[in-house]
Specification:
The chain is α+β, with helices and mostly antiparallel strands. 39% of the residues lie in helices and 16% in strands.
Length: 403
């Protein structure tokens, strides 16, 4: 019969088991903490990723204007024009979003979009500040390496900051003046939607005024179509035979024969604002047979680019200009959805609005020198349409030598 183990032999095994049992709970607790920590990190990472995705989606909704479907630039017959009101609205929303995205990887993307829009609104200091904040807080952000659209050596951020700094330097060197119109001499512009009176800045833009007067007295404005209408922004009129015909592609056709040299006294020292009458520059320069009226409170993108040479005389004239700007255009006319006119000529009135006639007046009397029939001036009668030129019959020359 085998001998039973003594207590002394079982003691080492019992001690080992007791030691392992003593550490089991701490070890299991440590494993539980590690597992819970890993799950917590995964959950935190998931929450952070969801937050980043939410911030990106909100930024995209503002930038792409999902609610209003408005573009930051409008393309009127190939001529890109910034929509300042849209840029201002989007910039304010993005600035609020940037506050909530502070310190995240999305913040530099939002700041770049803010810089782009502040440059459009003319707030160059804010545009530069947004770029500098990216450089300071996110020096390694990939957005800083995105190239400018027209250069492989310059980044988009550098281009935005450089352009805004140049404008700030330009503005610092120039003391802008508030032009004073001469109330004695004015133009009466009669349109299908009412009559406007324009007074001129004779001391700032005499060349542009002379060109306008020449067009008016020769009948160059009479019977032309308004070819650009943007409510609350601007209208453009004139254009001679290029806007009298039905070919929309001719509306913004350049004519070097009527091009005018810029007049620095106005172009460089006048800030565009509501009611101002200014030039329309095309390829060869300001066109002497066209003019634009500013409907927006300010128009900083016109400063140092267009030449202001007059303004609307009174509130009644301003009201007519606003009506012209609110004309239904191809871009807003439901009849032209999915048609070429909507995409190519979004700011052209879908139903023609004509300038009936433009006459020059001084001290309440019409000036001499008009070469067209002025009997309908200040009446409701439209100008008669020009009759098409009749081709003279060709006379065959007699054949020589009986041939």
């Amino acid at each position: 019969m085998a001998a039973m183990p003594t207590d002394s032999a079982a003691a080492p095994e019992g001690a080992a088991f007791s030691g392992a049992e003593r550490w089991r709970i701490p070890v299991l607790a440590g494993l539980a903490v590690a597992v819970i920590g890993s799950l917590g990190l995964l959950a935190y990472g998931s929450v952070q990723r969801e937050r980043m995705d939410a911030l990106r989606s909100e930024m995209d909704a503002i930038v792409d204007d999902w609610s209003g479907r408005r573009a930051l630039y409008s393309n009127a017959g190939g001529d890109a024009q910034p929509n300042v009101d849209v840029a201002e609205e989007q910039a304010k929303k993005l600035e609020e979003l940037a506050g909530r995205a502070a310190g995240t990887e999305v913040e530099p993307l939002i700041l770049l979009q803010i810089a782009l829009r502040r440059q459009i609104t003319g707030d160059d200091a804010k545009a530069v500040a947004a770029i500098e904040k990216i450089r300071k807080d996110h020096p390694d952000a990939p957005i800083l390496k995105v190239q400018a659209f027209d250069s492989e050596r310059t980044s988009l951020a550098d281009r935005i900051a450089a352009t805004s700094r140049k404008r700030m330097e330009f503005n610092a060197k120039h003391v802008y003046v508030e032009p004073k119109p001469d109330p004695a001499r004015y133009a009466v512009v009669e349109t299908d939607l009412g009559t406007m009176k324009i007074v001129f800045y004779k001391d700032l833009a005499p060349i542009h005024i002379e060109a306008f007067v020449k067009q008016a007295k020769s009948g160059g404005f009479n019977g032309t179509r308004m070819y650009t209408a943007r409510a609350g922004d601007l209208v453009e009129l004139g254009g001679g035979d290029r806007t009298r015909n039905a070919e929309l592609r001719d509306d913004r056709e350049d004519d070097a024969a009527v091009a005018l040299a810029p007049e620095p006294a106005s172009r460089n020292y006048v800030k565009h604002r509501r009611r101002m009458v200014t030039s329309v520059p095309l390829l060869s320069g300001d066109q002497g047979d066209r003019f634009a009226i500013v409907l927006a409170a300010t128009k900083p993108e016109f400063d140092a680019v267009r030449t202001a040479f007059g303004e609307l005389l009174d509130d009644d004239s301003a009201a007519v200009a606003d009506r012209l700007g609110s004309t239904l255009t191809f871009g807003a006319d439901a009849t032209y959805v999915d048609r070429k006119e909507k995409t190519d000529y979004p700011n052209t009135p879908s139903r023609p609005v004509f300038v009936r006639r433009v006459s020059m007046w001084n001290e309440g009397a019409m000036e001499a020198g008009h070469t067209w029939d002025t009997s309908r001036v200040n009446t409701d009668q439209p100008e008669p349409e020009a009759e098409p030129k009749k081709e003279e019959p060709k006379v065959e020359e007699p054949k020589k030598d009986g041939k």
